[in-house]
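Anyone? Bumping this.
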Amino acid sequence: ARSIVAVVNQKGGVGKTTTAVNLAASLAVAEQSTLLVDMDPQGNASSGVGVPPRSIERSVYDCLIAGMHLEDVVVETKVPHLTVLPAKQDLVAAEIELVDEADRASRLARVLDEAFTRGVPYRQVIIDCPPSLGLLTLNALVAAHSVLVPLQCEFYALEGLTYLMDTIDRVRNGLNADLEVDGVVLTMFDPRNNLAHQVSDEVKKHFSVYDAVVPRNIRLSEAPSHGLPILLYDAKSKGAEAYLALAREFLDRRAGK
Amino acid sequence: ARSIVAVVNQKGGVGKTTTAVNLAASLAVAEQSTLLVDMDPQGNASSGVGVPPRSIERSVYDCLIAGMHLEDVVVETKVPHLTVLPAKQDLVAAEIELVDEADRASRLARVLDEAFTRGVPYRQVIIDCPPSLGLLTLNALVAAHSVLVPLQCEFYALEGLTYLMDTIDRVRNGLNADLEVDGVVLTMFDPRNNLAHQVSDEVKKHFSVYDAVVPRNIRLSEAPSHGLPILLYDAKSKGAEAYLALAREFLDRRAGK
Ligand SMILES: Nc1ncnc2c1ncn2[C@@H]1O[C@H](COP(=O)(O)OP(=O)(O)OP(=O)(O)O)[C@@H](O)[C@H]1O
Ligand SMILES: Nc1ncnc2c1ncn2[C@@H]1O[C@H](COP(=O)(O)OP(=O)(O)OP(=O)(O)O)[C@@H](O)[C@H]1O
Ligand SMILES: [Mg+2]
Ligand SMILES: [Mg+2]
C-alpha cells in the first residue's frame, strides 16, 4: 500500500531536510517509486536533489493555490525512481492567501488525492516541512498517514517535542483521524557527547525511536552543495550507510501493512 | 544611546538563540543594563537564561495582545543587569490574532517605545526570533535599530541569506526606515572543514562579517540544560571567550554613535 510521511519538527536545524532527501533517495534506490514534496519556502529539499528554486517556473505553490495538476509541476531528479514536487520562495505567500479559505489545511491532501485518482505511480511520498507548526506544516500533517520526527540530541530540541506531539494529537482529533507517529530519528548523533546519550535515553522512554541513528558526518552537509543526495555524492560514507539502514527499517515497519 | 538589535535568520538551527542569550549576558557582564526579548514561541531564549516557559504566568504575548506593561512581565535572571521578557507557546496565537490588525507589525515597537517613555533603564535590547520571516520576526525588524545575522557556514544556510536581506530592505523601505544590518556572525565554525571556509569567504564578499567567530563548542549546547548562559556555566570555555569577544566588538562598533 502507498505510504505518505510528513517529516516534522518545529525546532530549526535538526535535520528534517537532510532526512527527507536522503530517506527518499534511499527508498528510490530500493526501487520504490518515490515522490519528495518540498513544503518549505526555503526550498532546501529541492536544492538537495539538484532542483534549486531559482531553476524552476512552477512549484508546489501552483498546486496549492492555482489548482495545477501535480504531474504538470513535478521534476525528475538524477536518482532513478525519485521525483520532486519543488518549492520556492513564493510558497510564503500561500500561508497568507489560504488564511481565509475553509479548506486551507487540506489543500495538499486534495492535490495528492486527485493525483492518485488520476493514476500517478508513487508508492512512497515524503514531505519536508519548514521549522514551524503553521499552515504549511498543518497541510503536511493532514495529507500524511504518519509523521517522522528527526531529533537532534540537544536540550533545546528536546524542549519542543511535547508541543509537537500535542499538535499531532490535535490533527488526529480533527482533520486526520488516521495520522500515526511513525517514530523519532536521532540525527547528528555524537556518541562522545554525554548530553546526546541523556537526551536519547529520555526520548526512548516516551516515543518509538528508530534503531537507525544518523551520526554527525561532514559528507552529509557537503552533498547539498552538489545538488546530490548522499548516496550519489559518497555512497561509502557513514551518512549514506545510516540513511540506507533507516530506509530498510522504514520499509520493514511497513512490510505487514 | 540605546541600541535595539534583532537576531534574525529564517534558516533553522544556525545559533540565533545561542547568540542572543550569550551576547546579552556578555553585555550585562560589561555593566550594560540589558533586556533580552524572546519572540520565539519555542521559548528557548527564556530557558537559556533560566526562565523556562512552564515557570511563568505572563509573557511577551500579554504585552503584544493585552497591552500589559513591559515592567509587569519581565523577569530578572541570575546574571546581574540582565532581564528577560520571556515567551511561551501562547505566542503562536499572537501571529493569528494580529493578522487583521492595522498595526500588526509594530506592536513590539510600541511596547518598547512606551516602556522607554515610562523610563525603563535598558541600554541594550537583544531580540531572539523564530526560524521564519512571519509576523513575529517582522515585529522584531520594525522595533529594531539593527539586525544581527547568525550564520552557520553550511550550504543550506547560505541559500537563505539573499531572501533575508531582501526582507530587511522591504522593512527599511516600509515600516522602519532606520533599520541597518549590523553584521553577520559566523557560528558553529569548524576550521577543519573546507565548506566552512568557502562559505565564509563568499559571505565576506557581500556582507559585513564580525571578526569574532564562534567555534563549535560542546559547552555551548550543554549550558541551556542548566538554564545558564555560557559565562556562568563555563567561563573558561572557547564558547565563552568567543561571545565575550563578540560583545567587545559589538560595543566598539557602537562607540561614538
Ligand atoms: N548528520 C549530519 N551530519 C552533519 N551535518 C548534518 C547532518 N544532518 C544535517 N546536517 C547539516 O546540518 C544543517 C541542518 O540540517 P537541515 O537543514 O537538514 O535541518 P532542518 O531541520 O531541515 O533545518 P530547517 O529547520 O531550517 O528546515 C544543514 O546544513 C545540514 O547540511
Ligand atoms: N557554537 C556552538 N557550538 C555547539 N553547539 C551549538 C553552538 N551554537 C549553538 N549550538 C547548539 O546548536 C543547536 C542550535 O542552536 P540554536 O538553538 O541556538 O539555533 P537557533 O537558530 O536559535 O534555532 P531555531 O531556528 O530553532 O530558533 C542548539 O542545540 C544549540 O545548543
Ligand atoms: Mg529544512
Ligand atoms: Mg532559536
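Late reply, but here is one note on the structure posted above: The radius of gyration of chain B is 17 Å.
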